[in-house]
């Protein structure tokens, strides 16, 4: 009789082999499985948890200053050619010139060459002028080279005696076959005109602000000019005004100001001027009077500016991030330092089982340091600490480090603050509001236990509680 053999072990062995072939049970598979479970769990938490939107603290004003385009009004006159001829320009456009300085020369034909010896001092001045121009030279403004050439030739004419010879009082001097025309007054020379030279606050109109109809005429020419032709403009005073159109809202915002700070968008330079509101053709305009800086903008009739009215600067945060929180108020003089950890805290006094006084160091979290106002100007400055309420109970007694003087904990006060989330959990930080609008606030950057630039805070404080783990 043949013996029967059980095939169960063989079946079990075959099953494990099949599973192994399917799943590949090794260390890599186990690690992958654990990672997959972790990713699933993390995704579940991400979907089900409350999402906290963060905000990075920045610096700057509460809002951008408004920009305007204004018309420049100044004392200026257009001068005409004294006689006919070909023009050789000597004064550099946009530069200051003294009275009796050479502006231009007129000749009937080719200019005759003249020779003149210059002194060592005069040569040194020319070298210095050339060096200064060379250092500030820009290839993108090569045309300035021709203006500098004209200025240099004018300087050499001065050294030749144009303003010191017997004809110094005359506005026209003949040198080297040229009639050299001199400036009648100190001023800034321009070789252009635009018809606004005689405009004043009294006769300017609303139509003058239409830049589409504005036209500027270039007076420089290589052609022969006739006596009486317009040839240059001289701005003879450093006093000038800028007129800007205002809406009713803008006028109301600026009402009452006597001075204002202006930023010129052409070069980002700023300066202050006297401010007033005037009416032109029934509409309101701002008038800003300056006593300097004209030479930088002499060639510009229309100027884009920014009125620097938002002067309060600091850290900028959204109002939605701010909330109030209550703290125990404890005089800073009761604070002490733990010799072991170096942390700041307070000595709490209590009774042991035998009725003896026992001092216990409490490492309480301090959230604010506020100066105590005093009517006594001679008194030393004193401060209160704002301490986490979870560190004490109402009625607890604390003592100074070097005496038995006690303070009973109980007084509370609130601080405005935000939740800082730099470390992945929420920590309350005090804020000192300097200015605010409907959406944002400007806070001080010098607040003890406060915020710093680039800190990350919760944009909506209602979604967060202190010490919440956010990520």
Determine the structural class based on helices, strands and strand pairing: alpha+beta
Strand content range: 35-45%
Average pLDDT, all residues: 83
* Rg, Cα atoms, Å: 41 Å
Order of strands, main sheet, comes to 3-13-16-15-14-17
Outline the biggest β-sheet: 6 strands, antiparallel, barrel
Extended strand count: 31
Helix content: 10-25%
Low-confidence stretches: 1-5, 163-169
Shape, please?
Answer: elongated
The DSSP helix count reads: 5
Distance between the termini: 74 Å
Describe this structure in words.
By secondary structure, the protein is an alpha+beta fold. The protein is built from 5 helices and 31 strands. α3 runs antiparallel to α4. It is elongated. The two termini are 74 Å apart.
Topology:
Elements: H1 8-23, H2 27-48, E1 54-56, E2 58-61, E3 67-80, E4 85-89, E5 96-97, E6 102-107, H3 120-135, H4 144-159, E7 172-175, E8 178-182, E9 187-190, E10 192-193, E11 217-218, E12 224-225, E13 230-245, H5 248-254, E14 259-264, E15 269-280, E16 283-290, E17 302-307, E18 313-318, E19 323-331, E20 335-337, E21 344-351, E22 357-362, E23 366-371, E24 383-387, E25 397-399, E26 406-408, E27 412-420, E28 427-430, E29 433-436, E30 440-443, E31 456-458
Antiparallel strand pairs: 1-31, 2-18, 3-13, 3-17, 4-6, 4-12, 5-9, 6-8, 7-8, 9-13, 10-11, 13-16, 14-15, 14-17, 15-16, 18-30, 19-24, 19-27, 20-21, 21-22, 21-25, 23-24, 25-26, 27-28, 29-30
């Amino acid at each position: 009789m043949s013996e029967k053999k059980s095939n169960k072990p063989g079946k079990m062995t075959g099953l494990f082999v099949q599973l192994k072939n399917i799943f590949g049970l090794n260390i890599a598979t186990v690690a992958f499985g654990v990672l997959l479970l972790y990713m699933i769990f993390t995704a579940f938490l991400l979907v089900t948890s409350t999402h906290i939107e963060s905000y990075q603290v920045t610096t700057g004003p509460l809002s951008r200053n408004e920009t305007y385009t204004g018309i420049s009004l100044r004392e200026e006159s257009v001068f005409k050619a004294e006689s006919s001829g070909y023009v050789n320009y000597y004064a550099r456009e946009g530069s200051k010139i003294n009275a009796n300085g050479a502006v231009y020369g007129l000749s009937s034909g080719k200019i005759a060459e003249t020779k003149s010896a210059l002194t060592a001092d005069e040569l040194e001045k020319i070298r210095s002028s050339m060096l200064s121009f060379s250092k500030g030279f820009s290839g993108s403004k090569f045309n300035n080279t021709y203006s500098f050439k004209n200025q240099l030739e004018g300087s050499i004419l001065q050294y030749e005696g144009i303003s010191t010879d017997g004809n110094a009082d005359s506005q026209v001097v003949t040198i080297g076959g040229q009639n050299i025309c001199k400036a009648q007054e100190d001023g800034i020379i321009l070789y252009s005109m635009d018809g606004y030279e005689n405009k004043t606050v009294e006769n300017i109109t609303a139509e003058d602000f239409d830049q589409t109809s504005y036209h500027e005429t270039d007076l420089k020419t290589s052609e022969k000019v006739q006596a009486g032709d317009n040839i240059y403009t001289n701005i003879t005073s450093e006093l000038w005004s800028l007129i800007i159109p205002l809406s009713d809202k803008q006028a109301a915002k600026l009402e009452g100001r006597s001075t204002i700070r202006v930023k010129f968008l052409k070069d980002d330079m700023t300066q202050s001027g006297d401010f007033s509101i005037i009416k032109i053709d029934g509409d309101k305009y701002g008038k800003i009077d300056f006593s300097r800086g004209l030479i930088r903008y002499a060639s510009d009739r229309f100027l884009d500016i920014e009125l620097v009215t938002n002067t309060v600067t600091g850290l900028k945060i959204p109002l939605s991030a701010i909330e109030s929180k209550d703290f125990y108020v404890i005089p800073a003089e009761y604070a002490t330092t733990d010799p072991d950890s170096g942390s700041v805290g307070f000595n709490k006094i209590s009774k042991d089982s035998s009725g003896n006084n026992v001092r216990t160091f409490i490492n309480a979290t301090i959230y604010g340091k506020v100066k105590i106002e005093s009517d006594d100007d001679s008194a030393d400055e004193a401060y209160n600490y704002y301490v986490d309420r979870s560190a004490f109970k109402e009625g607890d007694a604390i003592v100074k480090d070097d005496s038995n003087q006690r303070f009973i904990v109980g007084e509370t006060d609130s601080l405005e603050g935000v939740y800082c989330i730099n470390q992945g959990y929420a920590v309350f930080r005090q804020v000192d509001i300097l200015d605010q609008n409907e959406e944002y606030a400007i806070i001080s950057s010098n607040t003890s236990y406060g915020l710093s630039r680039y800190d990350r805070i919760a944009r909506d404080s209602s979604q967060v509680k202190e010490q919440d783990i956010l990520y």
